[in-house]
Amino acid sequence: MTWEEIQLKSRKTEIRRIALLIIILLLGLADELFGRILGPLIFIDDYSSITLAVITVQATVATLVITILSLMANKMDAAYMGVSINDFLLNIKPWVFKQKRIIILEIALIVLNVFLQIFGCFNVVIAVFVAAMILMIISIQEIYEAFLGTEAVEDEIKYYLVDPNASKELIKEKLSNFTKQWKREIDTQSEADYQEYTSVFDFLFSKCLKLMRIESSFSHNASNCPKLC
Asked: Where are the domains of the chain?
């Protein structure tokens, strides 16, 4: 397996989730328009109080997830081969549903629901609430995976480090973080771990040199080109 294959699998899953969110929001909007044009099919007493309670639950759960992320940032700083496991699972590996984006979306959905409540779009409020809960579930799944820290995650990090399509800046960042951690661990490593780290280091170092040579050659050729008036 390669890093591209891991990303492709992750993107397919996220596309399905995005499609589900869009369908839920469209159904809520269609239900709202249908109710306003043709009249409601089901009458609910004091619907506004129910949707207000829903918004309160939405805000409470969102706050809980943000709190958990804050605690993880303070307590869990484990890294493998110079890559933070938390950052890898919560921000690097996801394509769309990175934790930073999920938090921003959750806050935006709370604000949206407040305005929908004010304008009396109660059916859309329920749809937005369901979409927000799905985002919460996605976030919790990623957080739980970070808590596990399994061997599969370490394998994925290795594939990420040896990605041949990474930019020069990213390769340099990977190499810098990798060497810093290796320096701290090299004295206590087993022979198998040492060989594993050596192979990754060889790839990163040779890839960095290759990209620097290409950039140097390009700059040299550009400087030798005749200037056009």
From this structure: 3-150, 162-219
